[in-house]
Amino acid sequence: MSENKTILVTGASSGFGAAIASRFAAEGWRVIACARRSERLERLKKTIGEHDLIFPLVLDVRNAKAVEKALAALPNAFASIDVLVNNAGLAVGLEPAYRADPNDWEVMVDTNIKGLLHVTRTILPRMVERRRGHIVNIGSIAASWPYPGGNCYGATKAFVQQFSRNLRADLHGAHVRVSLIEPGLAETEFSLVRFKGDANKARQVYSGTKALTAEDIAEIVYWTTQLPEHVNINHIEVMPTSQSWGQLPVSRGA
Ligand code: NDP
Ligand code: 8X3
C-alpha cells in the first residue's frame, strides 16, 4: 500500500488517464483526476468506489490562470503531490501540413505543449522544496518517428521529449524524478478525437490488430513510479508487438 501518497493525473476522463487513475487508486493512492468533462470524472469516481481517494478536478489545462487557481485550492488531503502525470493531450486532424486547419494546430500546441508547461510550472516548486516528487510525461512515438499527417502532433510530442530531458537537467540534485513514456498505437478515444467524432474512421485505426491498451500504459506508469527513489527511468518507448517501422518511401518519376 502507498501510505496514501497523492498523484495528479491530467486527462483522467478517458483512455490512459482514466486507467492510470484507477490503477493508482487500487493501490490506495489519493488521486486528483483532472479533465474538462465533469460527468466523465464523476463516472470514474463511481467506478473506483473508494470515493475519498478521488478528487475530480474539472480543469482545462490550456488556461494557465485556472490551473494556478485550481491547484492552489486543493483540499489539504490532496495538496502534497508526489506524482504528476502530464497525460492530457490530443491529435486533431491527419491532413498534410498544406491542408491542415491552423486552428487544429493551435489546439494541439495549447494543450500538448502549453498545458503541460502550465501544470508542471505550478506543481514543480513544491516538489523541489520537499525534495520529493516524480513527473511522468506522456509523449508519443510520434516524437521520434515521423509519418504523413503527423506534422504538428509529432512536433508537440518532440517538445515533450526534449522538455522532459531538460527538466531532468534542471532538477539535478533536487531529488525529483522525471520520466518520459512514449507509447505507440493504443486503443483509446485518441482516434475519435483526431477524426473529430468520426467513429468509423477511428475504428479502422485499430481494426484487425491488437493495439496497446490504456491498462498497459497504466501498468508501465505504475511500475516506473514504484522503483526505489534512487532509480530514475528516463525514457520508455513502447509499441504493440504488431507495430514496427516501415521502409522510407522514395517517389519516382517526374
Ligand atoms: P483520450 O482521448 O482517450 O484521452 C485524452 C484525455 O486528455 C482525455 O481525458 C481528455 O479529457 C484530456 N484532455 C484533452 N484536452 C484537455 C484539456 N485542454 N484540459 C484537460 N484535459 C484535456 O486519448 P489517450 O488516452 O490515448 O491520450 C492520452 C495521452 O496519450 C495524450 O497526450 C496522447 O497524445 C498520448 N498518446 C496516445 C496514444 C494513442 O495511440 N492512444 C499513443 C501515444 C501517446 P477531456 O476531453 O474531458 O478534457
Ligand atoms: C499516438 C500514436 O502513432 O498515432 O501518439 O501518433 S500515433
Q: Could you explain how this protein is built, in words?
A:
The protein has helices at residues 15-26, 38-48, 64-72, 102-130, 151-170, 190-194, 199-206, 214-226; strands spanning 6-10, 30-35, 54-58, 83-86, 134-138, 177-183, 235-238. The protein has 254 residues and is an alpha/beta fold. The model has no long low-confidence stretch (mean pLDDT 97). The protein is globular, with a radius of gyration of 18 Å. α1 crosses α8 (214-226), α3 (64-72) runs parallel beside α4 (102-130) and α4 (102-130) runs parallel beside α5. The protein has one domain: NAD(P)-binding Rossmann-like Domain (Rossmann fold). Bound molecules: NADPH dihydro-nicotinamide-adenine-dinucleotide phosphate and 2-hydroxyethylsulfonic acid (8X3). Residues 10-17, 35-37, 40, 60-62, 87-90, 111, 115, 138, 140, 183, 185-186, 188-190, 193 line the site of NADPH dihydro-nicotinamide-adenine-dinucleotide phosphate (NDP).
CATH architecture: 3-Layer(aba) Sandwich
Average pLDDT: 97
Radius of gyration: 18 Å
Task: Output the helix-strand order.
Answer: EHEHEHEHEHEHHHE
Top CATH class: Alpha Beta
Principal-axes geometry comes out as: globular
Number of strands: 7
Q: State the helicity in percent bands.
A: 40-55%
Tell me the number of structural domains.
1
Uncertain segments of ≥5 residues (pLDDT<50)?
none
CATH topology grouping:
Rossmann fold
| Cα distance spanning the termini | 64 Å
Superfamily at the CATH H level? NAD(P)-binding Rossmann-like Domain
